[in-house]
Amino acid sequence: MHENLTRRDIIKTILVTSATSIIGGKTWAAKAISEVTANAIDPNVGTARILLSSFTALNNNGGSVRLGSSSISGGFPLGLFYPITINRLSATDYVALDSQCLHEGCVVGALSGGVNGHMTCPCHGSTYTARGVCVGGPAPVGQVLRNYPTTLEGGILKIDVADQGFNTVMTQALNGTETRLELRWDSFASVEYEVRYRPNFATEAVKVNFSSTLSGSFTTTFVTGNDTLASDVAARRAYVPATDGIYQVAIRLRSV
Predict the structure, then answer these.
(1) pLDDT in tens, 22-48
(2) Single residue among 115, 149, 183 that ends a domain in this structure
(3) How many CB atoms are located within 10 Å of the residue 200 CB?
(4) What is the pLDDT of residues 124-144, one digit of tens each?
(5) Is 144 in the same domain as 56?
(6) 236 lies in which domain range?
(7) What is the CATH number of the domain that holds 69?
(8) 0.85 surpassed by pTM
């Protein structure tokens, strides 16, 4: 990351004007800034909304999915954020866990063996229950993986995810005589980003294609971060139509 910017710096300084983040399908939106004014929310917490029906494994008790914003290599995420593991214990009881092993930080696998099964670290074999309690070392037995608060609302699992904020700036730009909106944001290396849109706060945001250049066509689906600030010359940029509504830059989450 830029040498004078750490994740904690971002969390401390970000001011969010979008009320929550939105998820649909198999991707989740981190907190973002739009030109629509709303009350600022806690900058330390992002809200992910998971459409449960999009994940077959979560249709049954004991099902589990591991969702991340970057690929995994050598047991560790290539990007800044560890995957989130979601375990279904019952139709009304879902557990969302940080997948970082309590031993040496490898990514713990998804739950296998049903509700009474285990999650296993592929690096050194530590095992955890469906609720994240370590029951087999070398990780400290009895300690628990970080749990994220969850709320179930009509088939959507809402997860309060800490430390997932980033700053986004929106300005107008001219492509000849066509007005476009330019989005720039503080991006992290190897983390994937997409753009989401909703006409108002009463609707769910959906993923939309964008252009990575001022004059390009709107065909790009996502881009990978490059460790720059929104103010840097090399900042990631997305150009979208100047349509009334709310655009959000979102961290793209997928099964890993």
Answers:
(1) 333 323 333 333 322 222 334 444 567
(2) 149
(3) 9
(4) 999 999 999 999 989 999 999
(5) yes
(6) 7-44+163-255
(7) 2.102.10.10
(8) no
